[in-house]
Specification:
The complex is a heterotrimer. Chain A is α+β, with helices and mostly antiparallel strands. Chain A folds into three domains: 14-215, no CATH class; 238-257 and 393-441, no CATH class; 271-385, Jelly Rolls (Sandwich). Chain A has five helices and 27 strands. Chain A has helices at 208-215, 238-263, 390-399, 401-419, 429-441, and strands at residues 10-11, 14-17, 24-27, 35-37, 44-46, 54-56, 73-76, 79-93, 96-107, 111-118, 121-128, 133-137, 140-145, 148-167, 176-184, 187-194, 197-206, 267-277, 286-287, 291-293, 298-306, 311-321, 327-339, 342-345, 348-356, 359-368, 375-384. In chain A, the strands form four sheets. Chain A has an eight-stranded antiparallel beta barrel. In chain A, strands 19, 20, 22, 23, 24 and 26 form a six-stranded antiparallel β-sheet that branches. Chain A has a four-stranded antiparallel β-sheet with strand order 18-27-21-25, with no helix packed on it. Chain B is an all-beta fold. Chain B has a domain at 5-46. Chain B has no helices and 16 strands. In chain B, the strands form three sheets. An eight-stranded antiparallel beta barrel of chain B has the order 7-8-9-10-15-14-13-12. In chain B, strands 3-4-5 form a three-stranded antiparallel β-sheet, with no helix packed on it. In chain B, strands 1-2 form a two-stranded antiparallel ribbon. In chain B, β3 (24-26) and β4 (32-36) form a beta hairpin. Chain B is globular, with a radius of gyration of 17 Å. In chain B, 36% of the residues are buried. The model of chain B has no long low-confidence stretch (mean pLDDT 89). Chain C is mainly alpha-helical. The longest helix of chain C is centred in the N-terminal third of the chain and has 20 residues, at 4-23. Chain C is built from two helices and one strand; from the N terminus they run αβα. Classes of the chains: A alpha+beta, B mainly beta, C mainly alpha. Chains in contact: A-B, A-C.
Chain lengths: 444, 209, 61
Amino acid sequence: MSTTLVSQSLVKAKSLSCPNCGTPIELRGFAHTLSAVCPSCLSILDASNPELQILQTYQGKERIEPKIPLGSRGAFNGTVYELIGFEQRSVQTPDDYFSWDEYLLFNPYKGFRYISEYCGHWNVIRVQSRVPYPTTARGRRGWVLDARKFAAFDAMQAATSYVIGEFPWQVRLGETAACEDFIAPPYMLSSETTAGETTWSLGEYWEGSKIWQAFRLPGKPPSPQGIFANQVSPYAGKTGAAWRMWLWFNVALFTLMTIFNLTKANKEVFHDEYSYAYFKSHDTSFVTPAFQLDGVNKNVEVRFHADIRNDWIYLSMALINDETGQTFDFAREVSYYVDSDGSEGSRDNRVVIPSVPAGRYYLRIEPEMVTGALSTRYEISVRRDVPIYSYFWIAAALLLIPPIVTWFRSNQFEARRWRESDYRPVDSPVMKIAGGIIESLGDD
Amino acid sequence: MSAPTSNCPNCGAPVTFRWSSAIQTTCEFCHSILIRTDLDLKKVGEVADLPADASPIQIGTEGVLDNKGFVVIGRIIYEYEQGGWNEWHIVFNDNSNAWLSDAELEYDVSWLAPQHQIPVIGRGSECILANRAYTVTSITKAHYKGVQGELPFEYWDKSDVAFADLRTPTGEFATIDYSEKTPLLFLGRSVEFDDLHFKNLRRFEGWTS
Amino acid sequence: MNNPLFLLYGVLLLGATGYLEYTGKSFDRINQQRVLPKSIRDNPGAYRSTYGGYSRYIGGK
C-alpha cells in the first residue's frame, strides 16, 4: 500500500563527555535516557539536554560493582535486552537495614524491563499499565491480576542509595518511594508510590542459574539465602498430587485384596468340638481324624473358640502330615475375663501356618487348663488357603506416610516464607510442634 | 493505487496524501504545516525542529491490528515531566483511523469515541465508560512539541495540553484529551509490540528488530 | 510425575503385600519340626511338643 520511501536512516547512540571529569559517556538508551551516571566520577548528569548538566555529584566513598556488568545483553522470553542501568535501593527501619539491587534492561523496540536481586533471589519485572482489582487476601487488602490473588507481604520506604548507568527518568540519590509487595508465587505484584502517583509492576521469580544462562555469564550466581517472598515452593502442587496418588494406591490395594479374596479357596477342611474335663488323666493329648489339604504350599488357618469365662485354656498343637510325618508345631492361649469394668481377652484365637504342602494331615492337640469347671467346651476348625487381611490394613496405614510428610513439609516451607513477611501469621500450637518435629527430622 | 499528489505551496516539493480524509499534513522538505482546502494546500505554520526521539515507529511503518493492516501516516509529539511520547496517527486498509500511542515503548491503541458524557474525574477515581469500570491512572500536563505527517484535524502550535489516562485490570485503555473546549474521549486498549507485526521500523545502531 | 519416590514406595508396598498374601506367609510363631514317625498317630502322648506346658500365664484381674 505504501509507495512513499520510508526513512532508512540509522539511529545512533549519542556520545558525550562528562562535564565534571571529562570521561566519554555513550548513551545506550538513545533518546529515552533522561539521566546518566558518569562511570568514573559517578556524578548524575541530566541527559535530557545536550549540555549534560550535573544533577548530583557522588559523595559516597565506595563503588558498588553490579553482579551483572553494565552493557551485558541477555535473552528474556525470546527478546534480547541490554543492561543499561543499575540502582541499589535500601530500607532503614529502627531495628533493621537492608538493601537490594535493581538492574534496568532496555530494548529499543520492546521497551524496559527490570531485574531485582536480594540475597541470591532474582525477579524479572515488568511495569504494568493495567491496574489490579482490589480484594481481600489473608485478612488484608490484596489484589487480583490475571485471575491470580496477590496477598500483602510487606511495605517499606525505599531510598535510592547508589546508581550507575542510565535511566529513563531523573534519578536522585536519597529519593524515596513507598513500596508495597503482594505475592502469588512465583509472581510478585509491587506498587511504588512517589508524589501521589502509583506505578504497578509484576515480577516473576527467576533462579540465579536461569539469569546467568540468559546473560551467558561465566561462573556461578550468588547462592540464595533463606526463602524469598515469591519463591516457588518445591512442594507446590505436590501435596495434592500426593493425596491423589494415595487415593489410587488405596484403590489398587482394595482391588488386590478383592482379587485375593476371590482367588483364595478359604475352604474349611476340618471342624470339631471337644470337651475338656479337668479330672481326666493328666495326659490330655489326642489326635484328630485326618483331613485333606489341597493346593500347592498354601497356608493353613487353625481357629479355636472356647466357651470360657474368667478363665484361660492353653492349646498346644501340631499339624502332622500323615504320609511324610512333617510337623508344624504351635500353641495358643485363649483367655477371657469379664467384670463390671469390661472385658479382657477373647474367646477366640487363631494361627496361620504358611506354606503347608498338600497332603493328608491330622492335628495333635494337647489342651491345658487349671480350672474348677467340670467341663469346658471348645471348638477347633481348620481352613485351607485363607486371606490375611492384616497385611492390607498395615499397607493402608503405611501408605498414609508420604502424603502426610509432604503436607507437613509444604506447610513448613510456607511458614518459613511468611516468617519474612511484615504480616506474619501466628502459628497454631499444633503447627508449631509439628513444624519443630519435621524441621529436626531433616533440614535440607 | 495512486495517491493524490499536490505541491507544497511553500517550497514546491511534492506532497502525497495516503489518506483521503486527512485534513492537515506537513511538508517533508520545508516542514511547513499544510491544511487541505477544497482546491489546494494552504500553509499555516511551520514545525520547529522535532525533539530527538527514540520511537521505533516512523511514518510509513506498517502493522496489523485486529486482522487489519495499517500504516502510520502522521504523529503528534508531546513531552511531560517524565519524558516524551508520540501519538501516532494510523490508518487501516478499510480507511478507518486510530491513534497508536508510544510512551516509553508502552503501546496503546485508541479510537475517538464520539457522543460520550465525559465524567468529572480526579486521579485514582473510578468511572464507567462503555459498560466497563475504569480507574484514572494519571493526569498529565503535556507540552506540545510538534506534528508530522497527516492528521484528521487541524492541530498545531498548542502549548500545554491536559490528558487523563484511565485503565481497567484487563488492559482496556481510555484517554481524555482536554485540549479543546469540549474534551475528547478516546477508547481503546494496550497492545504488545509483538502483536502488531510491525514492518518498516526505524533501525537502531547495534540492534536488529 | 510429581512424586516418583512415592510411586516407588507405593509399588514396593503393594508388591510386598501381594507377595505376602500370595505365599500365604504369616508371622505367627510356628516351629517346623523334624519328621515324626507314624506311631505318633496311635500314641499321641509319646510326642512332646516344644510348646508343652503352660504358656505365659496371664492371671485373672
